[in-house]
C-alpha cells in the first residue's frame, strides 16, 4: 500500500451540473509526486460519525476507500485537484463530495502509476464517461501539440461539457447521453473513420460498456494490446 496522507478541503467548485471540483491541501502533500496527472489514487473517507478518516491498514479498511484521479497537482502550492462525478447515485464517495465543506478531511493513498504513457503514438483514441473525464482531460492536456486522434467524452447534459486544452489535431467529440442502456461511446467508435498506424488507446467508464468497447477495438487494424488501457471505473 502506498503512503497515506491526510488532507483537507481548501476549495470547492461545481465545474458542471454533475462534476464537483475539490482542491485538497495539507502538509502531508509536501512530498506528493508532481506530474502524475491522470494517475489514480485511493481516496480514504471518514466512516459514519467520524470527521477524520482513519489512515493505515486494519481489518475492513478498504470499505472506506474509492479510486479517484489526480486531475492536477500544483507542485508550488502543493494542492491536489480532484473532480468528483456527482449524479443521482448514493455512495460513500459521492455523498462525501456532495456534502463537502471547507476544512473537511480526506485521506489520500498513492498515486499509482499513470496508465497512459505513449504520448508519441501514431494517433490517440481517448474514450471516457463522466468518471473518467478527469483522466481523459489530464491526458489530452499532456499530449504534444503535434498529436492527432479522437476523443469521445460522454457527459449527461450539454452543460457538463468542459473546456479542455487538447491539441488541434485531436478531435474532441462530446457525446451527450444520460441513458445507461445506450452505449454512446461504442456508437461513437462504430462511426469513427479508423486511421492507419498504431493508436495508443485509453478507455474508461462503466464496466459493461467498456467490455463491449474492448471487443470492438480488438477487431481493429493496428490495435496493439500493450498500447491499450481499458478499465471499468465503476459497475452499474
Ligand atoms: C482508476 C479509477 C479512477 C477513477 N477516477 C474517478 C474520478 O476522478 N472521478 C470520479 O467521479 N470517479 C472516478 N472513478 C470512479 C469511482 O471510483 C466510482 O464511481 C466509485 O464507485 C464512486 O464511489 P461511491 O462511494 O460514490 O459509490 P459506491 O459505494 O462505490 O457505489 C454505490 C452504488 O453507486 C453506483 N455507482 C458508483 N459510481 C457511479 C457513477 N459514477 N454513476 C452512477 N452510479 C454509480 C454503484 O453501481 C453502486 O450501486 C475512478 C475509478 C477508477 C477505477
CATH class of the largest domain: Alpha Beta
CATH topology of the largest domain: Rossmann fold
Could you describe the largest sheet, including whether it forms a barrel? Answer: 7 strands, antiparallel
- Tell me the number of structural domains: 2
Number of helical regions: 4
Oligomer category? single chain
Question: What is the CATH homologous superfamily assignment of the largest domain?
Answer: Nucleotide-binding domain of ferredoxin-NADP reductase (FNR) module
Report the portion of residues in β strands.
25-35%
Shape: globular
Poorly predicted regions? none
Bound molecules: flavin-adenine dinucleotide
Our Rg estimate from Cα atoms comes to 18 Å
Number of strands: 12
Topology readout:
Elements: E1 4-16, E2 19-25, E3 40-44, E4 65-69, E5 72-74, E6 79-85, H1 92-99, E7 105-109, E8 123-128, H2 133-142, E9 149-155, E10 170-176, H3 184-190, E11 199-206, H4 207-217, E12 228-234
Parallel strand pairs: 8-9, 8-11, 9-10, 11-12
Antiparallel strand pairs: 1-2, 1-7, 2-6, 3-4, 3-7, 5-6
Helix pairs in contact: 3-4
The structure holds flavin-adenine dinucleotide.
Flavin-adenine dinucleotide binds at residues 40, 66-69, 83-85, 87, 89, 91-94, 131, 134, 233-236.
Amino acid at each position: 500500500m502506498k503512503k497515506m496522507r491526510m488532507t483537507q478541503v481548501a476549495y470547492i467548485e461545481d465545474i458542471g451540473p454533475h462534476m464537483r471540483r475539490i482542491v485538497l491541501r495539507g502538509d502531508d502533500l509536501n512530498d506528493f509526486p508532481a506530474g502524475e496527472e491522470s494517475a489514480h489514487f485511493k481516496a480514504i473517507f471518514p466512516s459514519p460519525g467520524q470527521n477524520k478518516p482513519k489512515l493505515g491498514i486494519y481489518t475492513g479498511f478498504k470499505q472506506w476507500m474509492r479510486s479517484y484521479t489526480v486531475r492536477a497537482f500544483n507542485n508550488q502550492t502543493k494542492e491536489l485537484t480532484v473532480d468528483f462525478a456527482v449524479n443521482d447515485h448514493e455512495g460513500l464517495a459521492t455523498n462525501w463530495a456532495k456534502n463537502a465543506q471547507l476544512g473537511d478531511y480526506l485521506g489520500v493513498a498513492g498515486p499509482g502509476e499513470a496508465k497512459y504513457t505513449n504520448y508519441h503514438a501514431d494517433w490517440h483514441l481517448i474514450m471516457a464517461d463522466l468518471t473518467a473525464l478527469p483522466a481523459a482531460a489530464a491526458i489530452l492536456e499532456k499530449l504534444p501539440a503535434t498529436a492527432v486522434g479522437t476523443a469521445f467524452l460522454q457527459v449527461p447534459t450539454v452543460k457538463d461539457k468542459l473546456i479542455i486544452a487538447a491539441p488541434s489535431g485531436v478531435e474532441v467529440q462530446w457525446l451527450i447521453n444520460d441513458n445507461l442502456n445506450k452505449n454512446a461511446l461504442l456508437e461513437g467508435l462504430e462511426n469513427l473513420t479508423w486511421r492507419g498506424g498504431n493508436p495508443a488507446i485509453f478507455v474508461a467508464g462503466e464496466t459493461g460498456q467498456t467490455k463491449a468497447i474492448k471487443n470492438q477495438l480488438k477487431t481493429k487494424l493496428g490495435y496493439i494490446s500493450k498500447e491499450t488501457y481499458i478499465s471499468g471505473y465503476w459497475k452499474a
